[in-house]
Design a protein that fits this description.
Layout lengths: L17 E5 L3 H11 L18 E7 L2 E7 L1 H5 L8 H7 L4 E4 L2 H14 L7 E4 L3 E5 L10 H14 L5 E5 L2 H10 L2 E3 L5 H5 L11 H9 L5 H6 L2 H8 L1 H11 L15 E11 L2 H22 L1 E12 L4 E12 L2 H14 L10 E13 L16 H14 L5 E5 L9 E5 L30 E14 L6 E6 L2 E14 L16 E8 L4 E7 L10 E7 L2
Parallel strand pairs: 2-4, 7-8
Antiparallel strand pairs: 1-6, 1-7, 2-3, 5-6, 9-12, 10-11, 10-12, 13-14, 15-16, 15-20, 16-17, 17-18, 18-19, 19-20
Helix pairs in contact: 6-11, 10-11, 12-13, 13-14
Length: 546
């Protein structure tokens, strides 16, 4: 009895719809688009495309050059992938041979994946020449599955690509439909009928497994489905049955999107593409107004925003910026993108214009409502500074505005860290007022220099009053200084709980505040203690007071 008729092998009907796109000539089309233009396939009949020789992409395999990709004309000459370049040139001396560039092909495929975001945010790469799109619940926005598929194929054709598409409930069935049918929509429950007549390659199994199956007479997916499962698993491994069950929908197969899905997005399709920065900023304001209502319902504000500009010819510009505080005011969001667009004006190529603009919230946080006073104005001392810093960062980059923050360490060089303004901690509640009944206690923190050196500088100390006392004079930067006054020592021990072998900060330090004969004040320390078996103590200059 066929195992697929049992209850354990029943198909899972999840309502999922997966679109598989296959670009069989992607590497060759990248070169032809550079030579002949992006619309080289869709030229009008009275402007035929310039003639070009058959194109072959070469790569080194072992000690020989072999064909890694080719175009339709080379394929029509019965040239095949993995054929030796010498044999291909001997058969057809007129072919054009270009060295393979896998990185450029990968960048092109990622650009196509970015462009497919106009249909669904769930886009995954499939090998070196394919894409998976999870279009579940999205097809009605484009007039149905057939209308969406025709739109995708037409747009890619006008961009210079030959693409094959398959739409099915599972990634495996969609992949098989794209690679072996070219353009087919498979309804739920039709996966077995689709796969049965197809060759074993439709199951996405290794070539060695395919060769072993063909050696015993199993040459189609239908023949494998009709065979008993237990002997197949013992002889050919569990991967064969796994791929078969995934294609038929009996086991789940995840499609991992290449980019995180934004929790909130708004977009606008344009009948007339826009090219001017002013038009883009106006659209940002309109989209931010729509986004504000969604953020208010969630009680959140945006911390990271992304603006996606989809160009007519397939290019996508992705512009992201962050905010130091949760934000949902459309006017402020428009100001930030005004600065960002001004900074990127030379890098954004509008081409023939953008026909789709999308504004997404990549990260959000709770939005704290501020209390207004009797005049209706909201008083927030840090709001103007935060907006100023955000605008500077939007124009000059994330590292343009930095802020020092305290760190839990008693070592002076580790007690402060410089972080981007947006990452600095913010006080969300007002400070508590001191209890008036309790007498205030004043604690004077240790005095620290105005300027603290990034790294302590070694100094020479020829003599001290006593082994544990301050120096009488010292030499720093080849100049000799005579000490007239000294305060200290202030002992700072090592942080034993995070001691690193070889760390210079792991020794005990005795700090002194020193004043020289000219009234200049310095902050220096002795590292290490006298006596014992340790090395002799060393002196360092760590900062200056004035």
């Amino acid at each position: 009895m066929n195992a697929y008729s049992t209850k354990e092998g029943a198909r899972k009907d999840t309502g999922q719809r997966i679109l598989s796109l296959w670009f069989p000539y992607l590497a060759a089309e990248r070169i032809l688009r550079q030579r002949l233009g992006r619309s080289w396939r869709s030229r009008p009949s009275d402007h035929p495309a310039p003639s070009h020789p058959p194109l072959v992409i070469s790569h080194r395999q072992g000690n020989a050059q072999r064909i890694s990709a080719l175009d339709e004309r080379a394929e029509a000459l019965h040239l095949k992938r993995d054929m030796g370049i010498a044999d291909a040139r001997a058969m057809h001396p007129s072919i054009d041979i270009v060295e393979a560039d896998p990185e450029a092909d990968r960048r092109l495929l990622e650009g196509l994946a970015d462009w497919c975001d106009r249909y669904t945010p769930l886009v995954a790469l499939d090998g070196a020449d394919g894409l998976f799109l999870d279009v579940t619940g999205c097809t009605h926005l484009f007039g149905g599955e057939r209308a969406m598929l025709d739109d995708i194929l037409s747009r890619f054709f006008h961009q210079g690509f030959d693409v094959r598409a398959g739409l099915a409930p599972t990634p495996g069935a969609a992949w098989a439909a794209a690679h072996f049918c070219g353009d087919r929509i498979v309804d739920g429950g039709e996966e077995e009928a689709l796969l049965a007549p197809l060759p074993l390659a439709a199951l996405r199994i290794a070539p060695e497994t395919r060769a072993s199956l063909e050696s015993v007479g199993l040459r189609t997916a239908g023949a494998v489905m009709a065979a008993p499962r237990a002997p197949l698993a013992r002889r050919f491994g569990a991967t064969l049955l796994l791929r078969l069950d995934q294609a038929l929908g009996r086991l789940d197969e995840a499609v991992s999107p290449r980019l995180p899905v934004a929790p909130l997005s708004v977009e606008r399709h344009l009948a007339e593409p826009v090219t001017l920065t002013e038009d883009i900023e106006r659209l940002v304001g309109l989209l931010a107004t729509t986004l504000k209502g969604d953020l208010e319902r969630r009680g959140e504000g945006a911390r990271t925003l992304a603006l996606l500009l989809f160009r007519v010819d397939g290019a996508v510009s992705r512009i992201a910026l962050g905010t130091s505080r949760p934000m949902r005011d459309p006017r402020l969001i428009q100001k930030l993108f005004h600065e960002r667009l001004a900074a990127l004006e030379q890098d954004i190529d509008a081409g023939y214009g953008f026909d789709l603009v999308r504004l997404s919230v990549l990260a959000a946080a709770a939005f704290d409502m501020a209390q207004a006073d009797l005049t209706g104005e909201v008083t927030d001392d840090g709001a103007d500074i935060a907006l100023f810093a955000d605008r500077i960062r939007a124009r000059l980059g994330e590292g343009a505005v930095l802020q020092p923050v305290t760190v839990e360490s008693h070592l002076p060089e580790r007690a402060v860290a410089i972080v981007p303004f947006s990452e600095a901690p913010r006080r969300t509640t007002p400070p508590k007022r001191p209890d008036r009944v309790q007498a205030p206690t004043t604690i004077f923190p240790p005095e620290r220099p105005i300027r603290l050196f990034r790294a302590p500088e070694p100094i020479e100390v020829p003599a001290t009053e006593m082994p544990e006392g301050p120096p009488l004079n010292f030499r720093w930067r080849r100049a000799l200084y005579r000490v007239t006054r000294a305060e200290g020592p202030e002992r700072i021990a090592a942080e034993w709980w995070q001691e690193v072998p070889g760390d210079a900060a792991a020794s005990t330090r005795d700090y002194f505040r020193i004043e020289d004969a000219d009234g200049r004040r310095y902050w220096l320390y002795r590292q290490g203690l006298y006596g014992g078996s340790q090395a002799a103590p060393r002196w360092f200059m760590h900062g200056v007071f004035a």
